[in-house]
């Protein structure tokens, strides 16, 4: 059992090490943060979607924006498209599960918003359809994927592609980079010194 622990941790570290060395990933995360902050400054919002573990990531990431990540600051406008069970089951029942995010983008999205889609395979059909619609609506598109990016790669303005085909290791790198993405948004939004000293909620 200890060998299993060591093997899995080494596998995780190897993936993270590859991410650490990949400047294209770093550049994409920085640019995603800049675009998202500029959208929020303009009164727009971030929408996030994904399935399974990536649905949990969507909710986790949005919680960091709406509540806080490491220090107190005003709430930032973000919504997870994975949380309303009545909407999800209605669309799944009345249309198709492939439409569960696309329909919400149609209802909630505005030009200048940001859609972040998370999929370890890069081929989740409901994320693909949401990205396609978002592009026609003038919404910025960002994808966090693995496995070379899949079908989502060509539908996204920015791609954060984890160099792995192992779902759990892709997810581990995603959540680390999602936290960093939130930190970068904060710095573009509130200034480069944000987080370097204690912050307080705006009065």
How would you explain this protein's 3D organization?
The termini are far apart. The protein is 52% helix and 11% strand. It is an alpha/beta fold and 203 residues long. The chain has a single domain (2-190), classed as Glucose-6-phosphate isomerase like protein, domain 1 (Rossmann fold, 3-Layer(aba) Sandwich), CATH 3.40.50.10490. The protein is globular. The chain has a five-stranded parallel sheet with strand order 2-1-3-4-5, sandwiched between helices.
Entry keywords:
single chain, 203 residues, alpha/beta, Rossmann fold, 5-stranded parallel beta sheet, 52% helix, globular, disordered C terminus, Phosphoheptose isomerase, zinc, D-sedoheptulose 7-phosphate isomerase activity, isomerase, zinc ion binding
CATH H-level homologous superfamily name: Glucose-6-phosphate isomerase like protein, domain 1
The helical percent reads 40-55%
Low-pLDDT runs of 5+ residues are 199-203
Radius of gyration: 17 Å
Topology order in helix (H) and strand (E) letters: HHEHEHHEHEEH
Q: Based on helices, strands and strand pairing, what is the structural class? A: alpha/beta
How many distinct folded domains? 1
Strand content: 5-15%
Largest sheet: 5 strands, parallel
CATH-scheme architecture: 3-Layer(aba) Sandwich
CATH C-level name: Alpha Beta
Strand order of the largest sheet: 2-1-3-4-5
CATH topology (level 3) name? Rossmann fold
